Predict the 3D structure of the following.
Amino acid sequence: MATFSLSNVGPIYRREIRSYFQSPVAYVVIVVFLAIVGWFFTSDLFLINVASLRIVFELVPLVFLFFVPAITMRLLAEEKKSGTLELLATRPVRDVEIVLGKFFAAWTLLAAALAPTLIYLITLSALGSPDPGPVITGYLGLLLMGGVYIAIGIFASSITENQIVAFIVSLLIILALFMADKVLVFVPPAVASTLEFISIDYHFENIARGVIDSRNLIYFGSVLGFALLLATTSLERRKW
Amino acid sequence: MSIGVRNLVKRYGDRAAINDISFDVKTGEILGFLGPNGAGKTTTMKIITCYMPPTSGTVDVDGMDVREHSLEVRKKIGYLPEMNPLYFDMNALDSLEFAAELHGLRGNAMQQRVKEMVDVCGLEAVRHKDIGEMSKGYRQRVGLAQAMIHDPDVLILDEPTSGLDPNQIVEIRTLIKELGRAKTVVLSTHILSEVQATCDRVLIINDGIIVANGTPEQLQRTFQGAEEIGLELKTSSIRPIEEIIPKLKLVAYVNDVALLSHTGDVSKFEIHAEKGNDVRESLFRMAVSEGWIILEMQRRITSLEEVFHTLTTT
């Protein structure tokens, strides 16, 4: 117990990656994701004659609402249901290593889905000269936002054996975080600023604008860390 | 590598799954854990393997407490959970490599160990096959290979032969005996012949408490009721049965004689004698003196089934 080692994150990460990419799961979600985003990008390009990544940064957070729960729902729920969690948890592995391994695997899949959209950037560079600043921070923002969603998705997957329940719970939680600043007009000003700070979209928009503010980074980092902590605790619940 | 269980209690809400049990497993021993479903076998095993902690009481493996030195204990234990859960989307090799990696084995050392387990557990033919497509017997082998991958000193096997056909059961049992030669093994089962075939010592558990503890022979002896002897006699000439029975009853310690069949000059009896007295010799002498020929004489032993049944149904 003296040393705090995370050496088992690697094997768990690799197993999870293999499980994603050896089954149709990864390919189906990536194709669906790219089809939706690509449709809107090209229709903007050809119909409205606007060459901009703006649509990507507006649309992807919405697509993530469904995309992320779909890739995280089975991560722990399936292990609990099939009993393989017992196999994992009786090895010299810490629960936090299990959670982290799965988190990074899902994050990798999300990045893999996002990567092909960089082709749009090449299209745009051919047509004009996009400002690299907001593009880079925009992608950073998408990765951070996706990371927070995944952490929440893993927590949702840790509280149940049922993948559908995990999907719905994570969708509800991230929808609440996403919608928090969409209802500002209906609430008193005092509550409004709090809601705004809670809202994930507010922080994302700040970053996507090209400004990396520590306030936004701290927000993403703490929500992400808190969700992973909850997931680990919920996994340890069998010991209570 | 010994295991010591002291005053173990596990409650789920109000219900005690195990209620104050204590026992020891000595180094190199194969202990059979016997009991009806829901008796607390699996719960005890889950506590020993550090999957969950007890409500109260302690378990130590090689002198280390399962709660304080959880990671250390887990390094020394190989565990085959009930129902043998496996990753069905992995093939045998990948799944063994994964298990080895979780024990800190890497590179050549890992490959070496995986190869050894493939050989020992006879997985050569299916090593590239997805576990989901394997027969139950092969899945059980993969489960055992995984449990053994880090060469643990202690093996905890929860119903290792459940759901297998008779041939597979024999194979797995042989495998366990071979693998368990230098290890401390605890295996649970509700198949009694399994205990007799594999275990050095039996622990019968019912409703969360230990009801019997000893070698299979000891248990049979302890729970042996009155002596029962089956006897088949041939008399030289046809004689009325009424003559034979009173004579048999004269033998010391014989309480009762029942006639099972009587055809011509051959008769079959069931003889009940007082507990703890072997009357076979006296019966033989009586037969000699009367000129009877003994065709068959058999001492009936209480089976472990009967012991189990007596202890777990009240």
